[in-house]
Specification:
single chain, 325 residues, alpha/beta, TIM Barrel, 10 helices, 10 strands, 14% strand
Amino acid sequence: MARTLDSYVVLNDGCKMPVVGFGTYAPPQLYSKDNTEEGTKMAIEVGYRHIDCAFIYGNEVEVGRAIRAKIADGTVQREDIFYTGKLWCTFQSPEFVRSALERTLKDLELDYVDLFIIHTPVEMKPGDDPLPKDENGKLIYHNTDIRDIWKALEDCKDAGLVRSIGVSNFNKRQLELILNKPGLKYKPVCNQVECHLYLNQGKLLEYCKSKDIILVGYSVLGSSRDDNWIDQNSPVLLKDPVLNAVAKKLSRTPAQVAMRFLLQRGIVVLAKSYTPERIKQNFQVFDFELGTEEMKTLAGLNKDLRYLGIPEWQEHPKYPFHDEY
């Protein structure tokens, strides 16, 4: 499919981010790392140029291998790919930021990443255990001034290890801490958050737009239903009757309509699937448009329902979801 003019957004630092990204998180009990590698290759072949991954997913080696394979066979050049990596909670001390990014680069076997974001403001005890717990099974928290983390990320950008820097799962108050930081050199280019028809993030979106920060949505099709994180009794978004009625009327899949709704609101979407047909379908969102009435109908589905609230983190003083937005 021909790439259209609206397939990229220009970030506040001048870099371009493709508006449809391929998400690579895969519940390890359901998918092997080989699935990740093959799925990423297929996504690049279909036309995805934005690949979203993270240290905590445990598959950056495989994703890097897929990217390099598609560069080697001439499908893409390195500059065609926009790769997002994330700084995990246990590396959120200024002295660990660069080494965490360098570890990602080593696993990927790439010279730079396009975007590196703070995965969540919920900091945990630094060290090699990604989910450190005490003798009672409680997570061991850590407290760092987020502005010091941001300064370390700015240094990584200046060193050429990363093109753009941003955040994820931040609320307005936490974003303002960075934006109002004395001596701020680079603003966050994005805030990556859960966003879908049941959690449309209207207020956070307007705030981010007012600060020239792009909202990037994950779980845009609902969620992966991973029982490690997700309440299995929560509604399945793609089975929503209103969404399905709109999709049927337009001869589109519910996933395509759910993604298009967010794209038309100026949100970058990350979609994840390891089914070849769905990988293709989820990229076919550039050649149709939702009308005003359809947008209004779909906006009415908002329930402020968060699939990924992670209740076990709620006691952390920086848990972001206590605030309204």
